[in-house]
Amino acid sequence: GIRKPAWLDALYTQKFFVGCSIHETAKKNEKNICCLDCCSSICPHCLSSHRNHRLLQVRRYVYHDVVRLEDLEKLIDCSNVQAYTINSAKVVFIKKRPQNRHFKGSGNYCTSCDRSLQEPYIHCSLGCKVDFVLKHYKDLSPFLRTCNTLLLSPDFLIPHDLGDEEMTNETPNSTIVDYDEPMSSSLGSSGSDDMSMVCTDFVRKKRSALYVCGRSANKVSEEDMAISMSRRKGIPHRSPLC
């Protein structure tokens, strides 16, 4: 029988969310992708060299590596493996998470690491199911699925500082999001005029309290300033004693 395919062994043994040695000086160089054809972990800056390969995004959940159930189901049967929801998507843990059973009670427990599970699941991770299948069936081939193409999910974020040449070679389902664009860039000359009008109205409404906006201070007349200065309370007078 087939023990383990190379990509499965790489998914289990490769280190993710560590800095890429090839792109040490680049920003956002964490390895969060597993290239199933090269059996290695890569960072988003390495995508141009793996654009025609099967790529699987690895995510982080509760300090453990997880993958989307939808993507993993294309490669291997994940039935009886408990899935968790993160960002509206179901994910599966890659490695087993041992847990000591402090008391013996009714409930569902993982077949490999005794972790408490919800019914009807019997495996807490992909690694636990693989170990269970190899131990009892000695053959993993009935659970493997043929997958010739595997692209990154549409919500995958590509760093904005990639070069133009690298951008054109990315997978078509990748999403580019730029978070560094300043919010003030959306305001043109008309935006500044509107701001001045708002500030002017604000000054007129709060004239007695001398509220002056920095951008419209030069538009406040001397008459307004004089009126607001003259509106001060006088000396209080006590009522005569009876």
TrEMBL record:
A Pfam family annotated for this UniProt entry: PLATZ
Biased amino acid composition, Low complexity: 183-192
InterPro entries: PLATZ
Location of the region described as Disordered in the Swiss-Prot/TrEMBL record: 173-192
PANTHER family from the UniProt entry: PLATZ TRANSCRIPTION FACTOR FAMILY PROTEIN, PROTEIN RGF1 INDUCIBLE TRANSCRIPTION FACTOR 1
UniProt name for this protein: PLATZ transcription factor
Organism taxonomic ancestry: Eukaryota, Viridiplantae, Streptophyta, Embryophyta, Tracheophyta
